[in-house]
């Protein structure tokens, strides 16, 4: 697994497209089940998974317990790692970096920020490579 993380409009998608031009892309849609990405997997073809923040934001309404929601996200990451091994493909996760800047006043937005941060940590832990993208520049963190 590879993780590309950075702020809004930092160039994450461009960096991934450059490095993985033949990749299939799957965007997590708000309100869908996390495992829906499985339909997109093709053996030995890189899979890019985006849309995590939108998915989490919608899930906040359905799941009031942050620990349970984090467990769902970790289970999705573990499934991605398993598919990577089973199908001989590379999974690329694109995440927004929300930890810099002003902490939101609204509790819902703070939850979103916290869960996005935990997802970034959990993904980085499982990733073989972590890339930070800022101003279109890509820096290897792991």
Question: Could you provide a short overview of the structure?
Answer:
The chain is α/β, with parallel strands linked by helices and 142 residues long. Helices cover 43% and strands 20% of the residues.
Strand/helix succession: EHEEHHEHEE
- What's the shape? globular
Main sheet properties:
6 strands, mixed
Q: Count the helices. How many?
A: 4
In percent, how much strand structure appears in the residues? 15-25%
Q: Report the structural category.
A: alpha/beta
Strand element count: 6
Q: Separation of termini?
A: 12 Å
Strand order of the largest sheet: 2-3-4-1-5-6
Mean residue pLDDT = 92
**Cα-based radius of gyration, to the nearest Å:** 15 Å
Task: Note poorly predicted spans.
Answer: none
The helix content is 40-55%
């Amino acid at each position: 697994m590879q993780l590309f993380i950075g702020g809004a409009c930092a160039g994450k998608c461009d960096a991934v497209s450059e490095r993985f031009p033949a990749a299939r892309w799957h965007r997590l849609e708000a309100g869908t089940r996390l495992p829906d990405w499985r339909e997109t997997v093709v053996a030995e073809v890189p899979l890019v998974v985006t849309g995590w923040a939108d998915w989490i934001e919608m899930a906040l309404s359905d799941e009031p317990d942050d620990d349970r929601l984090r467990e769902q996200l970790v289970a999705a990451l573990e499934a991605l790692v398993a598919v990577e091994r089973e199908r001989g493909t590379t999974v690329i996760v694109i995440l927004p970096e929300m930890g810099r800047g002003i902490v939101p006043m609204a509790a819902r937005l703070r939850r979103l920020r916290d869960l996005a941060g935990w997802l970034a940590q959990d993904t980085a832990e499982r990733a073989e490579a972590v890339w930070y993208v800022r101003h279109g520049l890509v820096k290897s963190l792991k």
